[in-house]
Amino acid sequence: MRHQPVRRRLLPAAALVSASLLLAGCFAAPGGGDAADGGKRIRVAMMNPPRSGLSPLSDDAFKLSRWSTAETLVTLDADGDARPALATSWKQRGAAWTFTVRDGVTFHDGTPLTARDVVRSLTRAATAAPKPRILDGVDLTVTASGKTVTVTTAAPDPLVPQRLSSPQLSILSARAYRGKTVDPVGTGTGAFRLTEVDGTSSASLDRYDGYWGGRAKAPGIDVVFVPDGTARAAALRTGEADIVEAVPVSQAALLDPDLVTEVPMPRTNTLYLNTSKGPFRNPALRAAARRALDAESIVKGVYEGRADVAEGLLGPAVTWADGLRTPRRDTPAAAPRGATVTIGTFTDRAELPEVAQTLQQQLRKAGFDVRLEVREYAAIEADALAGAFDAFLLSRATVLDSGDPAAYLYSDFASRGSFNLSQLADPAVDAALDRAAAAPAGTARRKAVMAAEAAVLATDAAVPLLHERVVQGDAAAVAGVAHDPRERLLVTPDTYVK
């Protein structure tokens, strides 16, 4: 879906030159940029640097997936249904799911994939502290027998295959697991072998000719991590990058429209309100804050129309959500009377600081005294999770892990959720989330998910503002690049530079 720019924000020439220099020389690949066989390596500018040394047990796993270097037992199709990957088939019997491991797969260190390798990787994830969020509220054990692996949960779980599609449950070779660390360098099974990681600056991958899925078209990938959105856009404009992740809205209008692709994302900008302490412990003040916020002006002003006003936590990328949503139950509001609140957010997503400033103005107009605290995400996440702010503005993927929103809702709003920024502990919400988690896949589960969304919204613990559309930049010479709403795919075996 291509869009013409809505309006242009012209930057000083010096700013563009400075941004471009940030990228200059960063994409120097072996052999001067092209492989010995004449193919061109793919140069990628990504937004967020690694936060956990590219450990697959963290959100860094999605980088490994987007580079086609680490793989899971199953993948998801466009509808969120499980499809074979490192497992060729599976069947359920009560609380146990048995998966048949694919023959002919080798790890990047040359060792063959076995059922024991799957047990090692999944057990390490299941016993990690903290667990990957896809396993929030899930206790599982994994055993091997010949070429099969059996995953058993404490209670029957209809979503085990979808859970095992999460990049955080990637299968790596024995060499990856040394002590408490997990090292993905040279230990995956994908089309590209991770060969080098330079801290939070760059990464390099070479084509793995032994890939079970067939030889990749490109000889390798060179990645540079560029948190600055202006610099990422400049990399595309100046030809320094072939693929640019997450072009800021303000920069998209300055690019050739033919190089910009806009994809509706299952990602919601949400203001999480702290329900455990501070002014927003009072439900009436949470209701007052919600009523004071005007998301439409944010979509028009900050996002230049490249977003959708939120009606709930789940947006248009979850195609069935709107048809099953019920009108929200309103709650009484109280006058703020100068209540002082601090909103936290981060700079890694270029629009969020500007959104926070707009929220500050809107809440001040309603009678709140509002302060902002803005840092890089790596420097603010721990405080946000600890409830250090009265409110936290976050751009949050809603079906990132399993293709099913129940996992996101549990992680963010269950009293035991690992990403509970609102510090919410509400028995009605917990009960609704448990019902959603237990419901069988299909219509019944979707209805239960929407009932859980309604229970969360009734607390005003979270105020959904808008649903993002990701803007991705692809150079004219690049072909076969993925445009994935779930942010799992980017460079695939079919991606190459002409």
UniProtKB/TrEMBL annotation:
Gene3D superfamilies: Dipeptide-binding Protein, Domain 3, Periplasmic binding protein-like II. InterPro entries: Peptide/Ni-bd, SBP_5, SBP_5_dom, TAT_signal. GO terms for cellular component: ATP-binding cassette (ABC) transporter complex; periplasmic space. GO terms for molecular function: peptide transmembrane transporter activity. Residues 1-28 form the signal peptide. Keywords: Signal. PROSITE patterns: PROKAR_LIPOPROTEIN, TAT. GO terms for biological process: peptide transport. Pfam families: SBP_bac_5. It comes from the Bacteria. Residues 83-418 form the Solute-binding protein family domain. PANTHER family: MONOACYL PHOSPHATIDYLINOSITOL TETRAMANNOSIDE-BINDING PROTEIN LPQW-RELATED, PERIPLASMIC BINDING COMPONENT OF ABC TRANSPORTER. This is ABC transporter substrate-binding protein. It comes from Streptomyces roseolilacinus.
